[in-house]
């Protein structure tokens, strides 16, 4: 009986204050959480080799230490993936990043596409921006990836030592200049010789990731696999 009343209560609350899917913004039903069942199945996936063939990825595969570049979802303006990333970054919903990390990791495992690695490293935010937001969205994604893969993650291997303006709206050249020499390795001895998965939210020009990549290589990483939740359409 208690369970029945609890169920009725949740149904009543959902009727008055409907829980909405962070992707499509429609009301969710039953036990659906964060992203509705329909969107989980139909969010636009990146074709398995399309990122690797892109011009952006070409800059990474030129590094012999980079073992691969993988993105999960296709980012389009005003689309469902943008809704998810906006909720993650600007609406105080790190749980969106954790879930997306889990979803990406699960699909990689099912397709035998999960790379062998010793550590997952997230792209850091400057301390000022992290305090403004309350968290680093890339940490949330890394946490989700780690939970499914069992690979430990760390948000403290890299630090952003210079505050910069958002990359949004900048040209490719401006993005590269904006992130030049802004990262450093905090614990290089813990990175040396390690196989690392480097995680960020979106792959656009790759400028931020390349800046982090160079720091990790100077710190002595054995190899690096790059992963992002989304990739901008090329």
UniProtKB/TrEMBL annotation:
InterPro entries: ComF/GntX_DNA_util-trans, PRTase-like, PRTase_dom. Residues 162-232 form the Phosphoribosyltransferase domain. This is Amidophosphoribosyltransferase. It comes from Persicitalea jodogahamensis. Belongs to the ComF/GntX family. Coiled coil: none annotated. PANTHER family: DNA UTILIZATION PROTEIN YHGH.
């Amino acid at each position: 009986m208690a369970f029945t009343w609890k169920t009725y209560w949740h149904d009543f609350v959902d009727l008055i204050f409907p829980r909405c899917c962070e992707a499509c913004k429609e009301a969710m039903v039953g036990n659906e959480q964060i992203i509705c069942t329909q969107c989980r199945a139909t969010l636009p996936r990146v074709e398995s080799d399309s990122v690797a063939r892109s011009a952006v990825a070409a800059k990474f595969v030129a590094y012999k230490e980079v073992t691969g570049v993988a993105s999960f979802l296709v980012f389009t303006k005003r689309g469902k993936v943008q809704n998810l990333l906006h909720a993650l970054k600007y609406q105080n919903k790190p749980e969106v990043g954790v879930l997306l990390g889990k979803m990406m990791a699960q699909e990689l495992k099912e397709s035998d596409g999960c790379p062998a690695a010793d550590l997952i490293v997230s792209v850091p935010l400057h301390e000022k921006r992290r305090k403004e937001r309350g968290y680093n969205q890339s940490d949330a994604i890394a946490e989700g990836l780690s939970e499914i893969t069992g690979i430990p993650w760390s948000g403290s291997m890299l630090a952003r030592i210079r505050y910069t303006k958002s990359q949004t709206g900048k040209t490719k050249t401006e993005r590269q200049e904006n992130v030049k020499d802004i990262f450093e390795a905090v614990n290089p001895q813990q990175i040396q010789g390690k196989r690392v998965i480097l995680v960020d939210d979106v792959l656009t020009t790759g400028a931020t990731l390349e800046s982090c990549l160079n720091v990790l290589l100077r710190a002595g990483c054995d190899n690096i696999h790059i992963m992002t939740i989304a990739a901008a359409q090329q």
